[in-house]
Amino acid sequence: MAPVQDARHGEGSPPITNNGSGEEQLHKKYRVTIVGSGNWGSVAAKLIASNTIKLPAFHDEVRMWVYEETLPTGQKLTEAINRSNENVKYLPGIKLGKNVVADPDLEHAVRDANMLVFVTPHQFVEGICKRLVGNIRGDAEAISLIKGMEVKMEGPCMISTLITEMLGINCCVLMGANIANEIAVEKFSEATVGYRENREVAQRWVRLFSTHYFIVSPVQDVEGVELCGTLKNVVAIAAGLVDGMDMGNNTKAAIMRIGLREMRTFSKLMFSSVKDSTFFESCGIADLITTCLGGRNRKVAEAYARNGGKRSFDELEAELLQGQKLQGVSTAKEVYEVLSHRGWEELFPLFTTVHEISIGRLPPCAIVEYSEHKPNFSLVEGSAQYY
Ligand SMILES: NC(=O)C1=CN([C@@H]2O[C@H](COP(=O)(O)OP(=O)(O)OC[C@H]3O[C@@H](n4cnc5c(N)ncnc54)[C@H](O)[C@@H]3O)[C@@H](O)[C@H]2O)C=CC1
Ligand SMILES: O=C(CO)COP(=O)(O)O
Q1: What family does the Swiss-Prot or TrEMBL record give for this protein (predicted)?
Q2: pLDDT in tens, 193-246
Q3: Strand segments (E) across 9-123
């Protein structure tokens, strides 16, 4: 396995070694809390804990806020995690590291941390941030691993922006081709850290997550990285529908290509700063491929099509994912709200069709019929250049 310093890093930047910088070692120890403890949240805890235990810049202990629940055994989830060092519900069979402490008290979990890792399903973030206002350290920095967005009156709001606006702190993002169960068993993967201005902060996040099997590259394009991670979940629903109708590899590849094109157009229309090169990072094409081949959105959408649209996504999610959450259906709705508000539906036939299928307005087979429609460029001046 290639060591971290041999890895390719975004933007042709010098490699980031995993030793911790002199500045960090002299001045400050960083204390990490993970806000979230689902499937990916637990794997993030494992990655981070393996680094904090050996890097002098970080306190060993990693606190993980757990949305408390009672297991069928009657035991609390946090007690089970702290006793067995495993998240027995969301990541069974994987040791998290002895330095991971599960904490059911959100405010207590974040109190001492100056590095906050947000990793919950996106629909819960606003409620969590409301509880955190006034309860975090003044020098805290955040990173979001959350793939999703909110739609406000003013328009779409990325989760990193929501965190920044509600808590008044800088927020980077980490996205990539990262099916959690594969990283949990240490299979080689890559990820992208998106940052706004402060490259030193981005490097600290890279050091916190990087291992010999998890290669992280920084890219100065928060919106591009976050929109890639968010929008690919909608395309994965389309890919799953195609699988559920046994339409074969060529059709699925066509859907992925059309989806990637819509991802790029949507991102660039929302934020003109989004870079084309971001779509070639792990957060872009690689995440699209892995999610369309092996993700939960794909899996549930396949079941939806196999049932001819007769069982709802909610019902199938509960049955197939056992408490884990689907992001693609709600993201399709959020994207659709943006498109319909602006009158852009015909510019995004795939995104629009995924939403209409997921609410039962169209049958699953519409994914191919409608997605192949030529986008109507006359709707937005200059949009043709993004196709
Ligand atoms: N699982 C994966 O392979 C990957 C997931 N992601 C992203 O990470 C984010 C988090 O996903 P996972 O960690 O996989 O979670 P998950 O889908 O496995 O688990 C759901 C989590 O939500 C929590 N929860 C349920 N109700 C809640 C409430 N009312 N308030 C707060 N939390 C509640 C549960 O306790 C659980 O921790 C999502 O945005 C997802 O797209 C990103 C990369 C990979
Ligand atoms: O984001 C993911 C992989 O990078 C996981 O996607 P799913 O939520 O569809 O499993």
Answers
A1: Belongs to the NAD-dependent glycerol-3-phosphate dehydrogenase family.
A2: 999 999 999 999 999 999 999 999 999 999 999 999 999 999 999 999 999 999
A3: 30-35, 58-65, 100-103, 115-118
